[in-house]
Write a structure and sequence with these properties.
Blueprint (H helix, E strand, L loop, with lengths): L2 H21 L2 E5 L2 E5 L6 E4 L12 E5 L3 E5 L4 E9 L33 H11 L7 E9 L2 E8 L5 E2 L14 E3 L5 E4 L10 E3 L7 E5 L4 E3 L3
Antiparallel strand pairs: 1-2, 2-6, 3-5, 4-5, 6-12, 7-8, 8-9, 10-11, 11-13, 13-14
């Protein structure tokens, strides 16, 4: 088999497999919770403190917290995990700011010497992105491993870089961010919101954080 024929076969096979997996996903919703399964299953949705008349599920614990227990068949559950209905408490419009239209300063690596290790990344994105955050800043993003993302913020008025002062990794980290050019608000770990509209992935770390840019760094907004 010639190499181009092999590549074509692989692409077709992977495409068929992807569609097959997509077609077999079943969405289960109980109360404010949601999860995905590869096949039908019986589920027990238990409110702690309330009697369970008869268990109908296989009995595997899919989720539990101080109020609820969800039992089912763990071998059929797929996806990232359990999702819970989520509504953003804050809106980008509540932190609105005007967008600077003047000449943009190049990043000043003397303002944060550690940023020089990512000089190409920062310079390239500054040029390509322009002002994309909080009126006169550029947010720079790059991966740092599995479910890990570094960010830096560059002030396009004077080129000052904020990198080492921005926490990353673990619960304080960034894996997916949402922001707007005319708002000081940033959603950290926004990938938790990407799979199902109106739901957030439940995680013990890299949880959703709503942050406000103060001009010197990020301030966490109350949940």
């Amino acid at each position: 088999m010639k190499i181009y024929q092999y590549i074509l076969w692989v692409l077709v096979f992977c495409s068929i497999d992807a569609y097959a997996q997509k077609d077999t996903v079943i969405i289960y919703k109980y109360g404010s919770f949601l999860f995905e399964a590869s096949d039908t299953m019986k589920v027990d949705f238990i409110v702690k403190g309330s009697p369970l008349k008869q268990r109908i599920s296989k009995g595997d614990t899919l989720y539990h917290d101080s109020k609820y227990i969800i039992l089912g068949d763990a071998s059929k559950r797929i996806g990232m995990g359990i999702y819970k209905r989520y509504k953003l408490k804050y809106k980008f419009e509540s932190f609105k700011t005007s967008i600077y239209k003047g000449k943009l300063a190049a990043p000043d690596f003397t303002s944060d010497p550690s940023a020089k290790f990512y000089k190409t990344m920062i310079k390239t994105q500054c040029k390509a992105q322009g002002v994309n955050f909080a009126g006169h800043y550029t947010v720079i993003e790059w991966g740092c491993g599995t479910e890990c993302e570094n960010i830096a913020v560059v002030d396009r008025l004077n080129g000052r870089i904020y990198y080492t002062t921005i926490p990353y990794g673990g619960d304080e980290g960034y894996y997916g961010t949402k922001y707007k050019a005319n708002s000081r608000m940033l959603i950290a770990n926004s990938f938790n919101l990407d799979d199902h509209k109106g739901y957030a992935l439940i995680r013990d770390y890299e949880r959703i954080r709503i942050l406000e840019w103060t001009g010197l760094g990020f301030k966490k907004l109350p949940r």
